[in-house]
Specification:
The protein is α/β, with parallel strands linked by helices. The protein has five helices and five strands. Helix 4 (90-100) crosses helix 5. Residues 58-83 are annotated as: Disordered.
Length: 142
């Protein structure tokens, strides 16, 4: 089994990684960190390249590089971390990856919002919470 931590494309420290790392250490599981390049962003990158096709493989490679950058910015603890990159619908890809790695937990991040918005998670986090077959740990930015 594995702990799956999902990170966004900010390439900054992400609490989902550190919480995922804590869970992986506590349960003796592998930590897998994934970034999903949204389909819309993939299509924009393809348009910008003009002449050369921006393939799904290119998108997966770029998404995995983002995951690696976030991991490096988030932790300095030694320990194996597997990074993955996916392209497509973020919720669908996260849930598929959780199934592929046989995730014990799926760790996702959230952002603080206005007082009214604090009662609700972001739409991606909310969709994952409602659709996941595995327990979801939602962490908020500090």
């Amino acid at each position: 089994m594995a702990i799956l931590a999902a990170v966004d494309g900010d390439e900054e420290p992400d609490r989902a990684v550190t919480v995922g790392e804590d869970l992986a250490e506590a349960y003796g599981d592998e930590l897998v960190v994934v970034h999903v390049l949204p389909q819309e962003e993939f299509e924009k990158r393809d348009e910008v390249r003009r002449g050369e096709r921006y393939t799904v493989e290119n998108g997966q490679h770029d998404a995995e590089a983002t995951a690696r950058t976030v991991v490096k910015a988030s932790t300095d603890r030694p320990g194996p971390v597997v990074t993955r990159g996916r392209v497509g619908d973020v919720v669908e890809e996260l849930l598929s990856e959780a199934e592929r790695v046989d995730a014990k937990y799926l760790v996702v991040g959230g952002r603080k919002r206005t007082p009214v918005g604090k009662a609700l998670f972001g739409s991606t986090t909310q969709s994952v919470l409602l659709s996941s077959d595995v327990p979801v740990v939602a962490v908020m930015d500090e």
